[in-house]
């Protein structure tokens, strides 16, 4: 790259690689990403978690960052047979915490009015076909939090998973981090070139 010092070139390469990292790697809360498969951990239960935006993205699968507003289909494929016997509910709230990928169940429980920030609520339902499908139309881009709650088949306990996700948002964190790395490296590269 003409006109750029070695440090500046490195910084630019680092910035580009930061911007192209898949946002799905930032799994938090109850979400685990292994071998490009998202798994939602709900207490001792687990389910494969896949999101589709069929109108705009066809059969492309997403995990925690969805490129568009509009029709969005959430699919939980149960990995434990006992999940077919217990009520499971599904809630989406707007992320007013500002915690993003670091949000925890205690942060959600601390909200004064959960209903006021609720975007979607699917009451508890027993799905005997080993899969829960929830469709929702997002009107606004933004950061959201999903909450899935499942009962225990015999002891009356409930288990919850919290997972943050974004809708139609650029990865501004990556841009900012890349910019912070680029500025000092470019500065020192120019200083070094000026002294040679």
List the main descriptive attributes of the protein structure presented here:
196 residues; alpha+beta; Immunoglobulin-like; disordered N terminus
CATH topology grouping = Immunoglobulin-like
Summed over residues and divided by their number, the pLDDT gives a mean of 80
The first-level CATH class is given as Mainly Beta
Alpha carbon gap, first and last residue: 19 Å
Enumerate how many helices there are, as a single number. 5
Query: Helical residue percent?
Result: 25-40%
Q: How do the strands and helices of this protein lay out in sequence?
A:
Elements: H1 6-20, E1 31-34, E2 37-42, E3 45-52, H2 54-57, E4 65-66, E5 70-78, E6 88-94, H3 105-109, H4 114-117, E7 118-125, E8 131-138, E9 142-151, E10 158-167, H5 172-195
Parallel strand pairs: 4-10
Antiparallel strand pairs: 1-2, 2-3, 3-5, 5-8, 6-7, 6-9, 9-10
Helix pairs in contact: 1-5
In short:
This protein has 196 residues and is an alpha+beta fold. Helices cover 27% and strands 37% of the residues. The protein has one domain (24-168): Immunoglobulin-like (Sandwich), CATH 2.60.40.2550.
């Amino acid at each position: 790259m003409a006109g750029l010092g070695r440090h500046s070139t490195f910084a630019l390469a680092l910035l580009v690689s930061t911007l192209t990292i898949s946002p799905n790697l930032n799994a938090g809360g109850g979400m685990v990403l292994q071998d490009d498969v998202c798994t939602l951990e709900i207490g001792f239960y687990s389910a494969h978690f896949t999101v589709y935006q069929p109108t705009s993205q066809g059969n492309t699968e997403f995990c925690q960052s969805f490129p568009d507003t509009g029709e969005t289909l959430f699919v939980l494929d149960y990995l434990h047979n006992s999940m077919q016997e217990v009520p499971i509910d599904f809630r989406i709230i707007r992320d007013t915490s500002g915690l993003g990928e670091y949000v925890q169940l205690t942060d959600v429980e601390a909200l004064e009015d959960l209903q006021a920030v609720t975007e979607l609520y699917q009451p508890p339902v027993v799905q005997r076909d080993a899969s829960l499908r929830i469709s929702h139309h997002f009107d606004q881009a933004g950061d959201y939090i999903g909450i899935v709650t499942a009962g225990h088949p015999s002891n009356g306990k409930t288990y919850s998973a919290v997972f943050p996700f974004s809708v139609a948002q650029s990865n501004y964190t990556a841009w900012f981090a890349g910019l912070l790395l680029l500025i000092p490296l470019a500065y020192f590269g120019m200083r070094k070139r000026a002294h040679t």
